[in-house]
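Q: What does the assembly look like in three dimensions?
Context provided by user:
Components: two
Sequences:
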Amino acid sequence: MTERHNITLTINGTAHRVAVEARRTLADVIRDDCGQTGTHIGCEHGVCGACTVLVDGDPVRSCLMFAAQADGCSIRTVEGLQRGADLHPLQQAFISHHALQCGFCTPGFLMLAAGILEKRPDIDDQELVDVLSSNLCRCTGYENIVKAVKAAAREMRARA
Amino acid sequence: MKPAPFQLHTPATVDEAVTLLATLAPDDGRILAGGQSLVPTMAFRMARPAHLIDINRIGELRAITAAGATIRIGACVRHVAFEAHEIPGATGALLRKVVHHIAHYPIRTRGTFCGSVANADPASEWCCVLAGLDGTVVARSVRGERRIAAADFFQGVMTTALEEDELIVAVELPLLSKDTLTGFREFARRAGDFAIAMVLATYRLENGVIADPRLAVGGAEMHPRRIAAAEDALRGQPPGTAIFEQAAKIASAAIDPMEDQNNTKQYRRGLVRTLARRALESAT
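A: Here is the predicted structure of the complete assembly.
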């Protein structure tokens, strides 16, 4: 039952070779085995979205995927958003618009927003709100989160 | 919580998968597709399968293919695939109307059409589509292939005609004729939550009157189904508020709604009446 799978997770461009039990979720392995603790774990059953990461470009709940399933995949987490000393436009916008209070949900929101804006830079505001409705902020800072993501979307379009 | 220990199997072909399933199903082996329903139930320890057969690495299951008057949706096609505009005609238009109601975007990037069908949650939108369009479930086992009509497939809450050694390899849906109007409405208390009721409606116009009406109700009963009495009321009538309201009233009277602590039978009946009228009115 404790058979381990030798897998390689490429997280923000760095390959992590780890041996994991099948039951270990991607979220746990990113944090505990690969040491990337920026990804947060909230509900552990796919409701809160705090653990959202990009797997081969798609935002997924990393608590609803087993790490062994991500063998060979390219994973991006909140640690990979910043470029050198420059914050990602989403990170800057979250600061400028006071889009975080306790910060627990922030990595999930950032990766969700990064994922959708990279795929659909011209997404309209209504659809954006619909996408953002998938994640929970128990500080209830939704207004400012939506403002920040809209601002970042404009900034990302201007830079493109 | 964390899922209980299990053994993971990763077949590369359907043949390998069904061979594994034949061996492991009696030993509490289950198929893992998108995992967006199974993994949470494992986290709650409500499901503790001894073996999971992960079909995600089977390339042949990833395609949506048109074959004559049907489209075939492979077992690993994810919900998000239907947001893109690749399926032609009225069936494609209907699927694009429905897909946004399914959970949330990051769930739709992993969850699969066929997985929803196998799970047979009464609140599943794809199950309602399958029932409403009279699609076909294509199941494979080491014993061969079996084609199951939607009306025979759904048997109760999360209960289907699938045998324990059978894997759904695809679902086939008819390509509705180009002039078919389609509408879909559901009600949930929060965006992305499980629907309390949903209604799918399609029809064509022939000499100004309704032809080939389909009206399916999901979420309200143990499993989705077409409501023949409501369709009979629509057939041959010119479309309009009065006939839509009449069909909606018939549909709401024809069902035997489920009851839970938040939703009485009467409430679900009322919802179905409203949603049926709106689905018909919104059909384009």
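Follow-up: The beta strands of chain A are 4-11, 14-21, 52-55, 58-61, 74-76.
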